[in-house]
Amino acid sequence: MNRKVAIVAVAQTKYQASNTSQSNSELLWEVTKKILEQTGLKFENQVDSGFCIDKIIHCSEDFWQGRTISDLTLHPEMGGYAMDVIKVAADGTQAVYHAAMSILSGHHDVILITAQRKESETIKSSIENNAFDPIFLRPLGFNFLTAAALQATRYMNAYGLTEEHFARVAVKNRKNAINDPYARRQKAITISDVMHSKMLAYPIKQLDSKPVADGACAIVIASEDAAKKLTDKPVWITGLGSCYDAHYLGDRELSRSEALSLAARRAYDMAGIKNPRKEIDLAEISDEYSYQELLWTEGLGLCDEGKGGELIKSGITEMGGKLPVNTSGGLLSGLPSGVAGMAQTAEAFLQLQGKAGARQVDGAKTALVQGTTGPCGQSHCVIILNQRKGEIL
Amino acid sequence: MSERIAIVGEGQTYFKSRRPEVSELEMVNEAVMAALENAQLTIKEVDAVVVGNMELFEGDYQVDMWLAGGSGAYLKSGFKVQTGGSTGSSVCCTVFDLAATGEFKTILGIGFEKQDEGSSQASLRSIHEDVFFDVGSSGKSAATAVQSVAMDMMRRKSVTEEQVALVRVKQAENAMRNPYAHLRRKLTVEEVMNSPKLAWPLRVFHMCPTSVGACAIIVAPESQVKKISNNPAWVADWTNIHGAIQPFYGSITPSTISTPLGPMWAWSVEQAANRIYKRNGITNPRKELDVVEVYDMATWAEIEWWERIHLCERNDAHKLVEERATWLDGDIPVNPSGGVTSTNAIGASAMQRIAEVAIQIRGEGGERQVPNVNVGLAVTAGGDMYSAGVLIKKSL
């Protein structure tokens, strides 16, 4: 690529089980205000020259707000007035992807991306049922949980993984969350807690599953020139990859993710990464259900196929391990879906800037963020972030 | 911009009121296959797929997932965007951004709506209402929004009701020449003027229909264009302007009219056109553009847009009617496709405006072809006060 693109600032709300004191608009205003205060940026309609926010990409979905054109009344709170604006209806990572591509196109210099969701105001499973094809799958009553249960079972059968392996993921991520002030759940749990939590859909139990969460996130993405003006420590986006898988679960080998491997390869190729296991220092991986962190880690090529169970047992992905995964606590500690990928990108940014506080990974230079949209990870997005790439090149 | 880009293929379905014989997936596939055939490509040569529609209209959450089998997105990059009536142009602007990076060979953009499978009006009712202050209080709709524009035009003596009917008849004539259009029936001025009132002066025949159909475009960066097409439609510039709305705190519109929706739309349309003109050195659009496609959700809107995109002076729209300047054989034809008043499958509509300009530039317009088209402009307008402006040229 001719141009370079970097993240220059991030902001998040505290993620909560049920935020009854802030509306969607107010959540967005909180993060937008933080961004403006941090960066001193103004919007395009406020200035005549110089770098300013010249595009806003909002990330939300109509179903969650029960409103068609979900961003309709939200723009006043994020400054979307008299400037380029678009809405991505997918996971937050796709909004990051879109923004980075818009910068690389040369058409924009500074883009504000935002996402908010109040899961507490609706019923997740009934929304998710509508993501399945209306003719064959929807009438069966599928939702993301029951589809995930099939995938987890298939994964266990294919490679001999156990419920305990999955429980270990939940234990690890919940432990990490204690040090993340934004995380919703900040209390350590044990393997026994997970194993004895309520069974939702075998083998997925309550503590294997992402809890309901409300919150918002905002990120500023900028071109090289703008980034260097806006911060001393830009975090460069060096790789981007996205990929769709087949829709029908029967058309897929659920114990592997072909789409994720392709998305990862696209991102690695763009970033010039030849050996991801060596070159990546930390990863934020979508863990809506605990088994997914392991399955996606395999898909990303960060561990051998079928070896996710050994990986989690080895401690490599714990804080202090060779490849810490989900230092933020991940989705299992309570991130709203949709916002999740953006929040995980924000965490990777904080880590690479050295601003992750008690959960800081020492000497982190390169980070990977992965997000999913759709049932059983039907669509994946992979983002590679690098703290030094701008200086080396 | 890193790479110059061009539209190398466009395809659409035939638009109808109902398509009970196909699913959304099959319908989208028709448009995709048509676009691939038009571009002389196979799906193997497409790297990314961007989809857009109104998700509550058909009641499909993350519909791009199910569609992956028919859109061709399987194992390709892509995601879904949505911005109301301008969804199709937002898909296009996203595709243009992706193409200009030079990271992809070709990119497919798809906009569609299958309104026979849901209640669009029921979901549209959710638009204007702020959940705290505005629930059930407003009775606002697309019709009353256009009404505010129309009444303002009457007050300004911009056009007469009879002239509006003439423009509607023009749209019907154009649509009859477009095999894909939904409403293809000859209309007379009397019929239009005597059609039932929706919200005076807006009448039924002024308003867009509820259509079912899909549209697709294929875009490539310059390095690929040469290998694919000897007749590309170069996308010179694009913008996706937004005029924010505060339906419950009172409008922040710069217009003097208090109804927020009408003037805000008009304002963002004007901003989109102004941006394109300014960045591309266009000072006399009527002279410098050869064809224009606007998002005419109603005939009144089309005429308002003429003024807003400076095809004539403010309050002078009647002159364009008198001169028949915007007719197919006029000096600045507007909506040779028949426009949104003839066909409105929401997610596809805004993309069709851009696709039609590309069709005209590439000389594929058949009976509706405007002679000697070198520069065309598409301007759209949609729910959340989004207006895209896209400038397309035969050569850069």
What would you say this structure looks like, in words?
- The complex is a heterodimer of chains A (393) and B (396).
- Chain A has a domain at 5-122 and 212-230: Peroxisomal Thiolase, Chain A, domain 1 (3-Layer(aba) Sandwich), CATH 3.40.47.10.
- Chain A is 35% helix and 18% strand.
- Chain A is built from 15 helices and 11 strands.
- With 393 residues, chain A is α/β, with parallel strands linked by helices.
- The mean pLDDT of chain A is 95.
- Chain A starts with a strand and ends with a helix.
- Chain A has a 9-stranded mixed sheet.
- With 396 residues, chain B is α/β, with parallel strands linked by helices.
- Chain B folds into 2 domains: 5-122 and 212-228, Thiolase/Chalcone synthase (Peroxisomal Thiolase, Chain A, domain 1, 3-Layer(aba) Sandwich), CATH 3.40.47.10; 140-209 and 233-393, Thiolase/Chalcone synthase (Peroxisomal Thiolase, Chain A, domain 1, 3-Layer(aba) Sandwich), CATH 3.40.47.10.
- Chain B contains 15 helices and 11 strands.
- In chain B, the strands form 2 sheets. Chain B has a 9-stranded mixed sheet with strand order 3-2-4-7-1-8-11-10-9, with helices on both faces. A two-stranded antiparallel ribbon of chain B has the order 5-6.
- In chain B, a hairpin with a 6-residue loop joins strand 10 (375-379) and strand 11 (386-393).
- In chain B, helix 1 (24-39) packs across helix 3 and helix 10 packs across helix 12.
- Chains A and B meet through strand 3, helix 4, helix 5, strand 8 and helix 10 of A and helix 2, helix 3, strand 3, helix 4 and strand 8 of B.
